Amino acid sequence: MKISVTDVKPLITMKFDYDNLNQSLATLFIQEMLKRGYLAATSVYVSHAHNEQIVSEYLEAVDDCFKVLMQGIEGDCIEDLLTTRTRTDSFSRITP
After folding, report:
1. CA distances from 84 to 27, 77, 87 (A)
2. CA-to-CA distance for 46 and 60, rounded, in angstroms?
3. CA dihedral 19, 25, 26, 31 (to 10 degrees)
4. Other C-beta atoms within 10 Å of 46: how many?
5. d(Cα 30, Cα 89) in Å, to the nearest integer?
């Protein structure tokens, strides 16, 4: 996948690099993580409460979600995989 990940710890953030699909991909990632029991977004706050098992299970869920995202990218069907509206950039309402 074409993503970039910040190296700011403890807030790790990933950004998709698919131009006009970025918001839809972020929405699909959130949706798919919810299906796997994680209230997650494109950022994760790391804490000492996250032991090795928790991190491993989280990364397995992320890997599964990335597979779904890649299917959507390769099949050009991201919108078809969404069960909700695509999220919007919260700052778009105040920028020209």
Report:
1. 8, 14, 9
2. 16
3. 170
4. 11
5. 15
Residue whose token pair is 């989280």: 58
- Look at residue 90 and give its three-state secondary structure: coil
Q: Given the structure tokens 């804490």, which residue do they identify?
A: 47
At 31, the amino acid letter reads: Q
Question: Six-digit token pair at 83?
Answer: 């069960």
Q: What residues have CB less than 8 Å from 33, skipping those under 6 apart? A: 39, 40, 61, 62, 65
Question: What whole-number distance in Å separates Cα of residue 90 and Cα of residue 95?
Answer: 10
Which segments of 1-96 does DSSP mark as H helices, in order? Answer: 22-35, 52-74, 78-81
Contact by Cβ (8 Å): 28, 42: no
- Longest Cα separation, the chain: 45
Averages of pLDDT over runs of 10 residues in the chain (96 residues) are 88 93 96 96 88 94 98 96 85 60
